[in-house]
Amino acid sequence: MKWTEGIDKIGLGLYFLLCVFAIANIYSVDEGLGKKQLLFFGISIFVGIIIFFSRSKFFENMSGIIYIGGVLMLAGLHVFGTEILGQKNWYKFGSFTMQPVEFSKIGVALMLANYVSSADFNLHNRKSLLTVLAIIGIPAITVLSIPDVGSLLVFTAFFIALYREGLSGKLFVVGGLFAAVFLIANYLNDPLQWSLWYFTVFILVIGGIWFAFNAAFLRKNIYNLLPGVAIIVLLAGLSVISPIIFEKLPKHQQERVEVLYKGEREFRDTSGYNLLYSKTAIGSGGLTGKGYREGSVTQGKFVPEQETDYIFCTVGEEWGFVGSAILVLFYLIYIGRIYYLSEQQKPVFNRVFGYCFASILFMHFSINLGMVMGLFPTVGIPLPYFSYGGSSLLAFSIMTFIFFKLNYADKNSLV
Description:
Elements: H1 9-29, H2 31-52, H3 57-61, H4 63-80, E1 82-84, E2 87-93, E3 96-98, H5 100-116, H6 126-144, H7 149-154, H8 158-164, H9 170-188, H10 191-220, H11 226-248, H12 251-262, H13 273-284, H14 296-299, H15 311-344, H16 348-372, H17 390-411
Helix pairs in contact: 1-2, 1-15, 2-17, 4-5, 4-6, 5-6, 5-16, 5-17, 8-16, 9-11, 10-11, 13-15, 15-16, 16-17
């Protein structure tokens, strides 16, 4: 049997395609950064080769150490971190910087996969549920303390993997309700009005639907009503305190949320500036784009951070709707491919890690594109493989090669 059998050529081919196209677009924005990204890509490939020729069990055996190392790196930011763009979430080594939150996701994915694949794991057991929540919660709380709200949102990706392993879908419904209440309460900006009128309607509608689906179950034990009542009470409390919490946020963070309600033009000189020119760049690309290195917004450097978080607007301007659609399609095929391969894995460890990896990619992809197009607040989430940055590219590449190594080992296993 050839040693190349078992290598997923489609997945790795898409990885190389995305990285090469990304370097070309970063080079269009800034030649110097494009060359540096090419260097980071070379380093990522070198690390990937080392990973591919290592033992597949190494990652499972070392998951605890990698996890603890990731948490310690996050905690160390409070003492040794360097503040860049208002956030102290970087380590600086001479002219190079490193963002540990990108690498901490690898540790969480490995640790979660290790624990879920253990013999005593049962998601319906309270001890197991609390343990997985702790595995995700410890680094998530550390990230929040930095604070890095954007990266905190990405940690919700791990719950998609847990859903595959039996986590109730009701958790996602409750989470969506909390997010909706927070946004609507701040939009109304009147906690008393919201709590006395709008929330009353909300309780009647949601409570009525919930009771209708659970009436037969509740007749057997009235105490089953308590979780629903608790959630409604918490939502009521959130609706009242949300505007108060919102007023305590820094002004620029408030504006990033308000842009969703009022439009970017009202904040064109502050938090809406990036979004305004991002939309301008994407819209000006038309159907087929202005051509490589021919975009006036891109070449004029009107969009700050266009090589990082807002790199997609470069694609929209220079490659147009067709180029943007093809890129989106490639991402969806790639992420779908990882989910598909994850489902084919025989070891539970491989499957859970694959789902974690694909879900992290999906969250980054969705939030970044939503942010660039004004469907989501600006939160500083890079587009996987595409945004400039050594930390992001190397971290995603490490997860990529770990997964395809696990997939290779599974395909060549005799068990």
